[in-house]
Amino acid sequence: MGYVIYTKDHEWLRVEDNLVTIGVTEFAQEQLGDVVFIELPEVGSELMAGDEAAVIESVKAAGEIVVPIDGVVAMVNEALIDEPDLLNSAPETEGWILQLTPIEAPEIADFMDAEQYQHYIQDSE
User: Fold this and answer.
1) What is the per-residue pLDDT for 58?
2) What phi and psi, each to the nearest 5 degrees, are found at residue 35?
């Protein structure tokens, strides 16, 4: 059974076996506004923690998704190319961005669980 952890950059990671799905949180998509375009990484790309994995453009701003772990891109959410607004309507489900095969399992202590993340966004408002 998998689990979900969160970053201070408002990304979520669903960790299941040897696959980590990454997306933006509900809070992040609210800050972005209506997403109009997303640039996805190439499948097979090796990304190191801190590398830019995707670029999101919205009516308000442009921002990048920075991967929080080392891994190889296993899959990207092709649906986002034609429907970038999935990041607004379903950011934590159908609006996932990419899946990585991690080089090492994420250290849970480096991330927040759902309750810690809620406290984090409340404190930052």
Assistant:
1) 94
2) -80, 130
Please, what is the Cα angle at 36 between 21 and 33, to 5 degrees? 80
**Look-up: residue for tokens 């970038």?**
84
Q: Are 21 and 78 in contact (CB under 8 A)?
A: no
The rounded distance, in Å, linking the Cα atoms of 125 and 117 is: 13
Neighbouring C-beta atoms of residue 69, cutoff 10 Å? 22
> What pLDDT is attached to residue 106?
85
Pairing of strands 98-102, 62-66: unpaired
Cβ atoms of residues 24 and 11 within 8 Å: yes
The amino acid sitting at 53 is A
At 91-121, the pLDDT tens digits run 999 999 999 999 988 888 899 999 999 999 9
Copy the structure tokens of residue 13.
Answer: 């990671």
d(CA 58, CA 116): 27
Helices of type H across the chain: 26-32, 79-82, 86-89, 114-124
Domains identified in the chain and CATH numbers: 3-124 (2.40.50.100)
